[in-house]
Design a protein that fits this description.
This protein has one domain (36-253): Jelly Rolls (Sandwich). Helix content is 9%, strand content 51%. It has one helix and 17 strands. Strands 1, 3, 4, 8, 13, 14, 15 and 17 form an eight-stranded antiparallel beta sheet that branches. Strands 2-7-16-9-10-11-12 form a seven-stranded antiparallel beta sheet, with no helix packed on it. Strands 5-6 form a two-stranded antiparallel sheet. The protein starts with a helix and ends with a strand.
Amino acid sequence: MRLLTFIFLIVCLLVKGWAQDQEILAPVQPQTIQIKDIVFQDNFEREELGNDFVMVDEDPDRWVMDEGIMIITSPPGKVQDPITNKQRNVHYNTLKFNKALPENFEITVEWEIAFTRSPNQHWDHSQYLSIKLQDKIAQLEISFGQKGDRWVHYFSKWLRNEENSYLIEKVGAKQQNPLEKIRLRLVKQKYTFKAYVQRTGTTWKELGTHTILKLENPQLLISQSNGFRGQANKITEIPEIEVYIKEVTIREVE
């Protein structure tokens, strides 16, 4: 009897040791992003902008609240920066989020826009919708739009005002809908930032990944651009286009 008990104990120890070895050798499952509750959402269905956003480089004649924020795009310009006392480029009527972001987050912005070519169909005519995240040192920007007759989206990273990394894709000939619904999404998890885009009739597409080790109290900016690159003499040919910012949603990420 004692012999059987001893054998049984030995077998149990061996089985336990085998199980521990298997646990150690078991592959680690990749960590997935866990989306928490919405911490902020705004569909702008009111008559005033309110306190959650401020309009940067405002052109008051080219924006209005109308079932979303309607912004009439205009060519980019230059203004005198009161801090640096130098001229800087601007995209008029940029929307700045006036609250702190969670440590890890998912930002989604939805627009409606009818992209329009310039009268002379210039290849250098471009129209973009953008989400920008920046602090004093670093900057990330997702943009989606058209350049000539192609869809273009890019995800750029800047450090100390110098472009550090640039991901771009030009997507064949553009099939234009009368009214495009565009969504851009930026996800931060620790030091990793991922960008996504979705437009009418398509699924979400990942644009790429950037890493920034330090981003302190970043500002969220939402902008629209419309103009020519390097052809200032043709600036009067740019058609003004109405853009609706329909919704901004921010979720916390684990």
